[in-house]
Design a protein that fits this description.
CATH topology: Nucleoside Triphosphate Pyrophosphohydrolase
Number of domains: 1
Helix content: 10-25%
Strand content: over 45%
Largest sheet: 6 strands, mixed
Order of helices and strands: EEEEEHEEEHH
CATH superfamily: Nucleoside Triphosphate Pyrophosphohydrolase
Radius of gyration: 16 Å
Distance between the termini: 41 Å
Length: about 160
C-alpha cells in the first residue's frame, strides 16, 4: 500500500463574535456534494476542509503546514502547537486507483497577516476559494471527520490557554 505524509494548519484569529477559522473549498469534482431537500430537489452542499498538503523532501511537517496555509489561503500564521496526527486510507480516484495510507499532522496557528483567498492563480487548480468561518461552527461545517476532531482539539486548546 502506498503511504503519504502530509501536514496542515488550523489557522485562527480573534473576531467580533469569537475565534474565526481559515478554511478552503477544494476545487475538485467532489468540491460540492449533492443532497436532497425535503421537497425532493437536489442542491449542492459546499465541501469545506482545512489547508493541507504533502510534506516535501527535506521539509519538516510544521514547515509544510505553514507553507500550505499560505499557498491555499493567502495568509501567514504563527505556529502555536501541534494538535494531532490523523490517519486514514483512501482510494485514488485518478490514475492508478491505488489504496493509500495517509497520515496528516495538524498544527494550530494564529493568523499573522495577509488577505484570505488572495492566492496565486496556479493554486486555483486546487482551491476554489478560502474563507473565514466561526470556529464554533467548524465541526459542523467541515466535510471530513478527522478534521472535525482536530478542530475540537483546537477549541479545547484555546479554552485552556485564554492568554492567546
Amino acid at each position: 500500500m502506498v503511504r503519504e505524509i502530509s501536514a496542515g494548519g488550523v489557522v485562527v484569529k480573534p473576531g467580533h463574535a469569537g475565534w474565526q477559522l481559515a478554511v478552503i473549498e477544494p476545487r475538485k469534482e467532489s468540491s460540492s456534494r449533492q443532497s436532497v431537500t425535503s421537497r425532493g430537489k437536489r442542491q449542492q452542499k459546499m465541501l469545506l476542509a482545512l489547508p493541507k498538503g504533502l510534506v516535501d523532501p527535506d521539509e519538516k511537517p510544521e514547515e509544510t503546514a505553514r507553507r500550505e496555509v499560505f499557498e491555499e489561503t493567502g495568509v501567514t500564521a504563527t505556529p502555536i502547537a501541534k494538535l494531532a496526527d490523523i490517519k486514514y486510507v483512501y482510494v485514488r480516484t485518478w490514475g492508478d486507483q491505488q489504496r493509500v495510507f495517509k497520515i496528516v499532522s495538524f498544527y494550530l496557528f494564529r493568523y499573522q497577516s495577509g488577505e484570505i483567498d488572495h492566492i496565486a492563480p496556479d493554486m486555483r487548480i486546487e482551491v476554489n476559494r478560502a474563507l473565514w468561518i466561526p470556529l464554533a461552527e467548524a465541526a459542523r461545517k467541515l466535510a471530513y471527520s478527522g478534521e472535525k476532531q482536530v478542530v475540537r482539539r483546537a477549541i479545547e486548546y484555546l479554552q485552556a490557554h485564554p492568554e492567546l
